[in-house]
Amino acid sequence: MPIEPVPAKYANIADAVQQRIERGTYPPGSMLPSESQLVREFDASRSTVVRALEYLRQLGYLEGVQGKGRLVLGTRPRRRPSLPRRLFDALHAAELTHGTVIGAGGAPASSRIATMLAIPVGESVVARQRVMQGDGTDCSTLSTVYLPAVAAIGTGFADAGPLREGALDHLERCRRLAAADVIERLSARPATARESTLLTVDPGAVVLTNLLVVRSAEANPLLIVDLARPLPSQGIEEIFSFH
Length: 243
Description:
The chain is of the alpha+beta class. It has two domains: 9-72, Arc Repressor Mutant, subunit A (Orthogonal Bundle), CATH 1.10.10; 85-240, 3-Layer(aba) Sandwich (Chorismate lyase). It is built from nine helices and eight strands. The strands form two sheets. A six-stranded antiparallel beta sheet has the order 3-4-5-8-7-6, with helices on both faces. The radius of gyration is 19 Å and the shape is elongated.
């Protein structure tokens, strides 16, 4: 992951407006400056400003008011979904104490990741990858977290060092976002060469993949966690027998 993400201009505008909301410059209940004012301030096209504001609307910071503009909602109260242990660890287990970080950095979004994050194919994302060791009776898991580059600004998400908290906790703390639910998608396939090396399994061995799409209260994707682990000899029932 050697490519350093360069945030698009709309991302910088979204970040600046979000910080003003969080600092109280634009308090809850107030009207955001007009598109024309923001166009002049940021020396950007109207479409760029609109895209930045739409991103903030999807995250719950703004709401459109017919004939008036955009109302500032502030930040949403945090809501913690109840999760099985396997999913809770994937989202909340601290990198510093759970596993080894393999790499972090930016890259263009593949078609699969772009679809899951609802962003254009090729747009910058930041990815973090680590191997989470099993507890002696469990297999290791390769975890890759994908985050839109616009949401990674100011979070240190692309830094190589391990986080002192889980990926979702880090994002919620740094960006003051709130996860409302998680969609889980399971599949099985042959391991890639990289997965075979990192998980110490035979080339082509079957791995179980678990794609987690973390969404906001507005059902917009916040981040993706892609998990891969060797398929237990007893089948997937072994994994789902633990809470």
